[in-house]
Amino acid sequence: MSSASEKRASVYAGWIYHVGSNSMGYQFCNPRYLVIKGKYVEMYKRDPNDFPSKKPIRRGVAGKFTMVKEIGRQIIHGRVLYVLKIYSRVDHGKHGEIACTSAEEVEKWMSAFRHAKEEVCQEGSSESLVHRCVLSRRSMFNVNGPRYHSKSYLSKLIYIGRGPESLLRRPSMVAQDPLPAVSYTKQAGDAVEQTDWRCFRTVNGLRIFEDVKSENGAIMKSVGVVEATPEMIFEMIMTLDISLRHQWDTLTGQLELVEHIDGHTDIVYGTFDPKYFKRYYVFSRYWRRHQDGSYYITQMEVSHKGAPRKPGYRKITLNPGVWEITPLPSKPGTGTPRSLVTQIMEIKSTGWGRWKKSHYSKFHATVPYAMLCRTAGLSKYMLAAHHQERLVTKSIVNHDESTCETTRLSQVETNEEFYDAITAGDPADEDDDDSEEEEKKPLNKTGSHKLRRVTWGVMLLSKRPPAPGDNGELMLGCSAMEINMKLFKSTLRHQSSEKDQNCWCDPGGQGFMVRGKTYMKDYLKVPGGDPLLKLLTVDWLKSDDKIGAIAKHPASIVQTPAGKALPFIFVVNLQQVPAKPNYSLVFYYAADRPIRPGSLLDKFANGDDAFRNARFKLIPSIVEGYWVVKRAVGTKACLLGRAVTCHYIREDNYFEIDVDIGSSSVARGVIGLVLGYVTNIVVDLAVLIEAKEESELPEYLLGTTRINRIVPEDAEAYEGWRQHP
């Protein structure tokens, strides 16, 4: 890399934990200072900005085979941490794990590694084949190899935090005076919500709603603004420390972890406070963090043989519940962080008429009311936190360093993958030089984060949605080709009537929200309008193995004479749905004109994977179905290339995206929940390319699909797949 490009490289630096097991099988969890500059990665025992003579104990390059995977929430040495696995895609023996104190930090580190890999890919495209072959023959980075002396190149890096000891403490929110009533008008998602909420009670600044469309039962929610970050609120809801919960939760008596399923799911045993009644319950908790920084937690009753039994306590049925935590703009004038907290609860339909008759008028004296009021308890608890010490710990700093010394870094070969640097144990802990007492230098550096001022736009129904011809993505000078839908057959039936099930149709784009023409100025979103591409068919397939490159299969409509005659076909293969067998849901969209060269669609179809991963979005919306599934799926757009592994295939007249849902534990959790109710739900999906420049606005939908109550058993076997007559 040239020195000029090195100077423009972004620097990510901060404290993390290096976790794993040593040669004797004992688990270790050591604080380390991680630095990512450009494509280079280094791990230190001390902050190199304060100890310039210190050498890195690990270093290497985030090469093209370096993979970073979120493991999720784990308890290590009695502390809740969020773990990242770094490994080689070609050598499974090279892997290791680092941990952070919040899910937000995990997102930042994943972004840092992604940027480092993109830089390697950009350099690799300019290198000669001979040079790349020479590098590939060189030995990989040796974790126990000699250290290299180097000068600190982080002398001007903004430092935020107090060193490794600050990792052991959570930041405390300093409360301010309560805000007057404010209206929150931001569109909650990118699809139109199908529920009809009515506020029927307010208490202590808390609004309690009822879904008036709910039948044979009640779905209620409480909504309140809490002056804290989403991360702090999430940790408070997830904590099992009963001394903390008693500060805001009036009903819970005891909580105990029964089983840790994975980084996003666990099973918990709980009791109510015995002064109210002696009851216990067992429930599963599933959580995820959205790309916009919001959190979602669902709680469902389960049975578990490992749950304890307390004498005198009787098990009760716990109503399904959901917590949603959404970041809000900071409090004007003070910068105090704020979040919108929503708690949703279902009251089962059994005995609903009797319950409503005897308790609805006395709702304030019921258990559901006490549970919904926990939102107010959280708000008041955070407001009272101004007596606590303010600790601001930021683990990652992104700083454009223009004057860093980069001579030594350029000597590291591009084939030294950084996952080598965190394998097995941590032998550097045994070095004698680190046992010496070192006097830390005083920290005079300060850092600040300027939050971008956000203007929340209200959707104007009179705003005209973007029309397919307005964006110039296709060559409008060419005559439109007439597409005969009867020539394209599929394994899933097309919907013929409103009562039809186990089928598909095109719902159009009115139910989805996209960025409008003035989004860069007012953040206004408008209805999606008609999609650019026409939905041809949908295939529903199953196989013992993961199904990929579906468009190359002889039975695919892409390989038919009618398919080959089309100007352009866009194929989305949602593959490896986590079940046995593996399922694939395949959508085929077609253009009636060729793609215009230089358009956003042309850049996406013919560009590189880094651009595609940063732009390809999917918007889900459960139109009909169980409310817990609706909340789990949500209506927010997701950049699929950032959430799961996507493989792209560009050949002939088609472009295919294979979306590996099984590559993400978060996606597996959501799809696993959906599969349990798939025969009773109607889901709408929209795919689009995210617009990031004003010249790319307004956004437009590439295609939309509605899947109506499909039956897994009716999926066609991929091995025997053939064209239907």
TrEMBL record:
Residues 427-437 have a biased composition (Acidic residues). Residues 422-447 are annotated as: Disordered. GO terms for molecular function: lipid binding. It holds the Pfam family START. Residues 193-383 form the START domain. This is START domain-containing protein.
